[in-house]
Automatic annotation (TrEMBL):
This is Probable DNA 3'-5' helicase RecG. Keywords: ATP-binding, DNA damage, DNA repair, DNA-binding, Helicase, Hydrolase, Nucleotide-binding. One of its GO terms (molecular function) is helicase activity. Residues 280-441 form the Helicase ATP-binding domain. It comes from Jannaschia pagri. PROSITE patterns: HELICASE_ATP_BIND_1, HELICASE_CTER. Residues 460-620 form the Helicase C-terminal domain.
Length: 694
């Protein structure tokens, strides 16, 4: 199959081919992201109006929409210009008035002739104690009927409800009977309607419950979207997996040496992840795996074990961090362990220049360096490896797909392990990383004391500084994170510098250090080093410290204007403390009054330290796109599926899509052919391309 199936042509024809849609309407519909009849099908009503008839306006809650049979009484034309035209009507119990502020008298007389029976439907209200219905939405003759429940669509200027309803009806009439792509067992188990039936039901709700994401019709349509998306990811994964990889099987010799010198035992979750990764590396195809774990869950050890596996097999590994500080810290933390195993580990960053850099590069090309740690400098063109087996990318949401691609240029068979520190809800992980295999560190190393989290208004700054002075006197160390007031690093840096000066004035010059993104790299290093060594007690910082720095003695985290940060970010920042044995404190300073959302965010942080729970709450508060940042996330926009409320469907869709492809890799079986239809319907171009070349 090379092109779109003919069956689907009418759904992808121009909008003007629909009844009631001309070029002008078509252009306006584009404002609702509707470009073809297909898009109308997946634009579902956002609410509904109950038009079930009642005997009298007295039986309805006013103001509200009422549908009521009446006998038309006398017409009362306005006495003066600018006054409304009124018509008395009588229902089963009372008399009320229809009111027109516009329109010619003849029109009103033709529509509502005195003495006749009509059914009126529209919004009625009380005016001076008397019910009135201005401009009824519908006037029907007796015997005519309205649907008892009228769907209400999202509209845009120039598109009326009537135009929309007609266009949707036109699109619905073009839905051909299509072969079923959903697993028959799943269909039976859920009791879902067919695709065509689901569209009919979703567009013809009978009651408010039919608009809920829990309704059968909406579940099915959401599933269709998610299934098509997961099928695309599964196809990408299969393609990825069919690429030749390298069998990297370690002896365990180096890993055992490192475990022997570690002062602790790996957690169950670490051990499980290490095994999953080793199994994957041993397979003759390319690994593409995500290691997800909360701050402090011990990802670094897992990464090291994987890197050592590559070295045991006679190859090399690289660990890439998003910032200079982090790369340096990884290198420093890992070097003693590498030494213990007799493994050569080097650091390469943008700061390596001249002869030193050349020496590193040639050692790397010779295979004399076994593990390279660095920033994205490790992927520059002139960096060549003797035998690169594994790349670990400490992503922390700063690298994207592009960096992963760059890797392919170094060695197309290199196994890839991406580490992400921000736990993201399962539904989003599946959405964003569904083409990858997943290892999860869902268990924290033992022996941590929970962080006490408190909120304080900024007006109590003096108290906070006084407490800080007392804590510093006891030998404690603190981070002080400055607010993200502007979208500009320069301005954030200025506010950090101001806070640095005021804290130095309060605590003594030698006690306070400063790091921010605008500083010269050497100055940043010096400030970090002074803090790590305990020469400074307080480190004033912008969010550059968010990612990964590890100073176990630091037990206080002050976050100024916490109300301006995102939940995930606050969680990350707080994760910088609570790493040692001492009880830790996190002070979230906010500017009063707090908005509802900001208050909810700070409350969640006070209540929980579980990154996965926090991320779920974050999703509920913000919506899918925002959690990762839509622009960089590459998250698809779903029209029907609601990731917050239908998260479980995403997992089912992934299982189902992978199972289908395992049984029918080129989608040639009858169900596979049907699945191609849903890929076309959902405009999964990437999948269709993969199928074409495959
Ligand atoms: P992450 O990168 O996942 O935030 P790290 O790898 O930096 O976490 O580990 C955080 C701290 O926990 C480090 O000091 C590390 O040495 C320690 N750690 C890691 N694994 C364990 C374990 N199994 N038991 C005790 N401490 C551990
Ligand atoms: Mg880390």
């Amino acid at each position: 199959m090379t092109g779109r199936p003919e069956q689907l042509f009418p759904l992808f024809a121009g909008l003007e081919t629909l009844p009631g849609v001309g070029p002008k309407t078509a252009k306006l519909l584009a404002n609702l992201a509707i470009a073809a009849p297909r898009d109308l099908l997946f634009t579902l009503p956002s609410s509904g109006v109950d038009r079930a008839p009642v005997a009298s306006v007295q039986d309805a809650a006013l103001p509200g929409v009422v549908t009521v049979p009446v006998t038309i009484g006398r017409h009362i034309p306005p006495m003066q210009r600018g006054r409304p035209y009124r018509i008395e009507v009588e229902d089963a119990k009372t008399t009320f008035q229809v009111v027109y502020f516009r329109g010619a008298a003849e029109l009103h007389q033709r529509l509502l002739p005195t003495g006749q029976r009509r059914i009126l439907s529209g919004k009625a209200e009380l005016y001076d104690g008397i019910a009135q219905m201005p401009h009824p939405d519908h006037v029907l003759s007796e015997g005519e009927a309205l649907p008892a429940y009228e769907p209400v669509y999202p509209l845009t200027a120039g598109i009326t409800a009537k135009v929309m309803a007609k266009a949707v009806a036109g699109a619905l009439s073009r839905v051909p009977p299509l072969a079923e792509w959903i697993d028959p067992n799943l269909m039976a188990e859920r009791g879902w309607p067919t695709f065509a039936q689901a569209l009919q039901e979703a567009h013809h709700p009978l009651a408010a419950a039919d608009l809920s994401p829990a309704s059968m019709a909406r579940q099915r349509l959401a599933y269709d979207e998610l299934f098509a998306h997961q099928l695309t990811l599964a196809l990408a994964r299969t393609t990825e997996r069919s690429r030749p990889g390298q069998v990297t099987e370690g002896s365990g010799r180096l890993r055992r040496k490192v475990l022997a010198v570690l002062p602790f035992q790996p957690t169950g979750a670490q051990q499980r992840s290490v095994d999953e990764i080793a199994d994957d590396m041993a397979r003759p195809r390319r690994m593409n795996r995500l290691l997800q774990g909360d701050v402090g869950s011990g990802k670094t050890l897992v990464a090291l074990m994987a890197l050592l596996t590559a070295v045991e097999a006679g190859g090399q590994g690289v660990l890439m961090a998003p910032t200079e500080i982090l790369a340096r810290q990884h290198a420093e933390g890992l070097r003693p362990l590498a030494d213990a195993a007799g493994v050569v580990l080097e650091l390469l960053t943008g700061r390596d220049k001249g002869r030193e850099r050349e020496a590193k590069l040639s050692a790397l090309a010779n295979g004399d360096i076994h593990i390279l740690v660095g920033t994205h400098a490790v992927f520059q063109r002139d960096v060549t490896f003797a035998d690169l087996r594994l790349a670990v990318i400490d992503e922390q949401h700063r690298f994207g797909v592009r960096q992963r691609m760059l890797l392919g240029e170094k060695n197309a068979a290199t196994d890839v392990l991406v580490m992400t520190a921000t736990p993201i809800p399962r539904s989003l992980a599946l959405t964003q990383y569904g083409d990858m295999d997943l290892s999860v560190l869902d268990e924290k190393p033992p022996g941590r004391t929970p962080v006490q989290t408190a909120t304080v208004p900024v007006s109590r700054m003096d108290d906070v500084i006084a407490k800080l002075r007392a804590a510093v006197a006891e030998g404690r160390q603190a981070y002080w994170v400055c607010p993200l007031v502007e979208e500009s690093e320069v301005i954030d840096a200025t506010s950090a510098e101001e806070r640095f000066r005021s804290l130095r004035a309060a605590l003594g010059d030698g006690a306070v250090g400063l790091v921010h993104g605008q500083m010269a790299p050497a100055d940043k290093d010096a400030a970090m080093a002074a803090f790590v060594a305990g020469r400074t007690s307080v480190l004033v910082a912008t969010t550059v410290i968010e990612v990964g720095v590890n100073v176990p003695n630091a037990s206080i985290m002050v976050i100024e204007r916490a109300d301006t940060f995102g939940l995930a970010q606050l969680h990350q920042l707080r994760g910088r403390v609570g790493r040692g044995a001492a009880a830790s404190t996190c002070l979230l300073m906010y500017k009063a009054p707090l908005g509802d959302t900001a208050e909810a965010r700070l409350r969640i942080l006070r209540e929980s330290e579980d990154g996965f729970r926090i991320s779920e709450e974050d999703l509920a508060l913000r919506g899918a796109g925002d959690v990762i940042g839509t622009a960089q996330s590459g998250l698809p926009r779903f029209r029907v599926a609601d990731l917050e409320r239908q998260a479980a469907l995403m997992a089912t869709a992934q299982t189902d899509a992978r199972a289908l492809l395992a049984a029918d890799p080129d989608l040639s079986s009858p169900r596979g052919q049907a699945a191609r239809l849903v890929l076309w319907l959902m405009e999964q171009d990437r999948a269709l391309r993969l199928l074409r070349v495959g």
